[in-house]
Structure formats: C-alpha cells, structure tokens
Design a protein that fits this description.
Elements (H helix, E strand, L loop, with lengths): L16 H7 L1 H26 L4 H11 L1 H12 L6 H27 L4 H25 L10
Length: 150
Amino acid sequence: MNKAVRSRDTSTNPIQWHVRVRQNSGLRYLFAGGLAFLVDVGVLALLKNVLDWPLWLATGAAFLLSFFFTYTIQRIFSFGSNAPHGVALFKYTMLVVVNTLATVAIVSLIDQTVLGWLGGKVIATALSTLWNYFAYRYWVFADTRPHKKD
C-alpha cells in the first residue's frame, strides 16, 4: 500500500496556540492585559460594591493598584524588555497618569448611561489597550541604549 505524502508547507499546518503566543508580542500583550484587567476590575468591584467607595475614587485606586502587576507582566512576558528599569518605570508612570485620567473620565461619563460603570470600564480598557500596545512596544519598553558593535 502506498501512503500519501503529506505536504511540509507550514502555511497549511496549524501552529499550536502556545507557540503563537510565545512568538507574537501582540498576543502576549493581550493575554497579559486580560489578566491585568481581571485584577483591575476585581479590585474596582471590591472597592465600589463591597467597601462602598465613591466611583471616581474606586476607579482611580483600582487602576493604580494594578500598576506593578501590569508593569511587571508586560515588561517580562509581553515584551521581554532589557530597557533600564529606571527609564522604563518613569515612562510607564507617565503613561499610567494619562491612562488613569482617561479611565476616570470615561467610566464617570459612561456611568450616566444604561451601560453603567462596568460598561464604562470595558470601553476605557478597550481604548487604552489599543494605544498602550504601541506606547509599550515603541516607547516604554524599547531599549534605547546604544548597542556595542563587536
């Protein structure tokens, strides 16, 4: 019996999902961001619904509390950055200030609609996810040190 010879063309062979995640900074970024979102929203729900904090304060505090978790997972897992920590952390902090103000504004505005604060949080996260990927990749975690030539 003759066995059919299978094509070695990799364009038709599915790549396992974990290989794609490891090879693509965009997919790693989204995965890490999903984890960070769960941390952020969980803290927001705790502060707002359990501890009865005002929405603006709960939103800002939850966003800021996820700061170190997000910085670490994005730096190491998503972008494998070798940029100096001081510079990267300063840039990240500047971006967090912008994101915090934008998030508080978006959540507060959308809370007045049928979508409520959670809908506002989802919209704010979607928007910041888009602009943050490029900011992280090309600014925050980019290694701008001069490279030595051998």
